[in-house]
Design brief:
The complex is a heterotrimer of chains A (260), B (382) and C (397). Chain A has helices at 2-28, 69-73, 109-113, 139-146, 208-212, 220-232, 254-258; strands at 51-53, 55-56, 61-62, 79-85, 92-100, 119-121, 136-137. Chain A is an alpha+beta fold. By secondary structure, chain B is of the alpha+beta class. Chain B has one domain (7-381): Cytochrome-c3 Hydrogenase, chain B. The chains are: A alpha+beta (260), B alpha+beta (382), C mainly alpha (397).
Amino acid sequence: MTNMIGEAWRAGKSFVTGLNITFKEMVFRPAITVFYPDELDTVPAWFRGIPLLKTDLLTGEYNCTSCGLCVEACPVNVITLEWHQDPITKKKVADRYAIDMSRCMLCNYCIEACPFDALVMGMDYELCKVDPENMVYEMEYLLRLGLKYSSVAQPGPKAKKGALPPWVFHELTGATEEDIQDEAGFLGRAPQAKGYTPVLKAQYRKEETVVDQPPAPAPAKVEAKVAVAPAATPGMVPPDQPPANPGGTESGNKDGEEAE
Amino acid sequence: MEQAKELLVNMGPQHPSTHGVLRLMVKLDGETVTWCEPDIGYLHRCFEKLSEFKTYPQVIPFTDRTDYLAAITNELCFVEGTEKLFGDAIVVPERAQYIRVLLAEFQRICSHLLALGAMAMDIGAITPFLYAWRDREKMYSLFERITGGRMLYNYLRIGGVRNDLPAGILGTPTDGEDKADQTIWGFINYFDSYVWPQWEALVTDNRIFQWRTQDVGKLSAANAIAYGASGAVLRGSGVKFDLRKNLPNAIYDRFEFDIPVGKAGGDCFDRWIVRAEEMRQSSRIVKQALAWLAENPGETMGKVPRILKPPKGEIYHRIEGARGEVSCYIVSDGGTNPYKVKWRSPCFVHLQLMPLICPGQKIADVIAILGSIDIVLGEVDR
Amino acid sequence: MVALWNNLPHLVQIWLLGLGKGSLILVWCLANFAFAMVLERKVSAWMQNRVGPWRSGLHGWLQAIPDLLKLFVKEYIEPRNVDRPLFILAPLVGFLSAVLIWLIVPIGPGGTAMNLDIGIIFIAAITGYDVIAIFMAGWGSNNKYSLLGAMRGAAQMISYEVTLVMSIIGVVMMVGSLRLSDIVEAQVNRGFFGWFLLPQIIGFGVFIIASLAELNRAPFDLSEAESELVSGYHTEYSGFRWAVFALTEYIHLVGWSSIAATLFLGGWSGPNLPQVLQGLGNILNGLGAFTNVAGDAVSNAAVSIGFMNTGMWAWAVGFIWFALKTYLFVFLAMWIRWTLPRVRIDQLMDLGWKFLLPVSLFNIFLTGVLRFVAVNYNGLPVSLGSFTLRLLGLWAN
């Protein structure tokens, strides 16, 4: 009898405690819901999304040299690479670079394997397709999405010890598809021969604040290249890290390392 | 007169609470279970055979996918096993060791949160499950910032970890709940001050929960050892055995923590209590690791050859995963691919306990037992 | 209009009245379903740090309409070898039992569709239909889970019906009538502290637990325990047939809540605006000369809106109080559902037969003793409660 009353008391007490907790959660705690289509959740800079191809925005050439290391590194064999040798430049030119995203594990091995910093894990995550057959992303698509993650000058693969590894993009240029204008059709072009000097055009829409800033000191040779840009399309200069070290793979890019 | 027959019920493969794709064949006499047999294999992905055709680093993302709720511990098992194969050739930097332990223990909290939440939901309390989910999302945000992936990290590497911790992720010991999804200290403090007491009050102390779990699914210590149980199931039966203490891998011998054991003879509530207490012990370990990591910067990747070719030999490596003893047996023939990988998953072993402890219980208890042994079907089938 | 009505034959009057009342009850039930269902989802969402339905209507409060529309156009999936008559009829029988409760609930002063003098017994009788519905659904579905759920449901509801009626008997003893409107009137006369909530606190507790079990709601939702039995007795139902089960569940919930409000919280009784103002004025006057001006003003205001004491106004106030009290219990049921785990079938039976039934019998005994004391010693407990109210001016006489 006492046992029963004690049990009833204990049970009642624990129920009241529980009810109190849920009531407090109801009244005092805000909802944690993210209203998805209206507001997009942010992803950290290290986010591993779809692997994308990077472009050197200065020359418009994609960084990929068709070496095939990513294909070898892929544990699930989703990367297809077909190439031919350019008879003039004697370089490999990729004919087809496709990733079957329906099977990709997003393991990052392809990016780690790439010695030319040609691949990046994108932050894009709304890549749904109605038909799973369409999940094979071709080179053009990867290059176009990858433009956002490309910068004027990429740091070399072994730029600085102890910093973030180069295959994690540390510099999101923040360019939208609108900003990336490709009037001369440079972008997505195979690497050219060494002596080749491209006729340059600004890739970015100018930001107002940038105009007043004094141009940063830069190597003379490169500055000459960049200087063409405002002339070609007035009022347009690359806003992001102006010619601090544009073509400099040899000296590395110190600014890029610190940003996280 | 026709004899009363038993009712054979197929729970699953499509059933709300079989934790994945599991088929439990249950014979019922009224509400009482007389016979129970798990039928597995719906999620088989040939992990072991597949590993023979991949190089050593390429196997790591596949180990993530065995127990996808505690991916780091699986990676740790395979990576440490491979390093053992190399002998002295690969030296893992100390900081990398600490990061490994930090993440493994953080992962254990994460995994146990879901285990407790799923068990509470199996018993009928849906709100605790949602709370578990809420807090787990915060942990996943942290994991995402550290490793780049939310569930499947592919973060550990043979010889270290893939990258150092990003700046500011550790936080300071004064970080509170507002930073729970930004710094590890923030989450740990939030966990200690809010999450754990809430679980205690909302579920553990709840009398209905105790009625449902106490004296249900009893597993004696002798049976637990005989069936090869490990982890919280073994400790819930009162056996004080934890590989982190008894056979420390990595640098677990440098940390202070206790091993909780069940006291009531291995029922579902014991397993629950052990899991809940283990989360607190894990938070202790995480705090110690955080204190060390904040003061000791350094390399996170040891010197490893570009092409990994372990010397000829074989190795059996066992570590304490979130669900029990995860271990792997790797045979190397000196090539780039492992000759053979055998994966021992605790869930596979624990699922075999179902025919032992289910008969005599009610059908609702079957679900409670299933929740208490905390299986992940991806690991059962591999 | 009145003349036209009076000229109609008696039989036609009865039929027309019945049709009108029936339609009103149906509309009222559907409105309650729409609100209670969204409320359930909202309450669960708030408790779980979510927002719940959000898109249809303002913050999703019209979610019931698209839900019902969707269920209406869905396919009716019928498994092989179902017992077709049972399978199709079962939702309707359950719906009937849920709706019929509303026949006798006084939703305002004199607002009862049928003022039955056997109200409580009528409730007990109606509840029996629900068991039949659940068992029809479970047996007709040709599914093992459904059968298990139906067996559980039948066992549970039959055993808790006994406890439920026993817990109400205390109230009936205090009032001396089975008629629900009499029970409300008794509580109106007794004042706030005379509501049967406090004098019948044991009966109230037993009633709440037993009615949760009777309603198949958590923590006693064994017949549709989704973690064990998929969905229990309505596993095989789809489309609008399933929707009728959902309708039943919520109409039942609101119906039982209204009965709980009627029995224990004084139904539609409650202070209206003039009474509140009068009480406020009394308090202000009692504080001293300083506040007398304000007190007089408030009292005068109370007198000037005294028309609210009578007629349609009184009815409206009564209805509002009734709805508030009803939804207090609805919220309580949801609150409990989203907090507590589910009990097991044997524990449920133990709780019902070994604990609640003895307790409710003890309550009957206790009520009898206290009633004896109250009658023979000039209503001691009643006067204690009413004393406080007289101070506040809330009690008229």
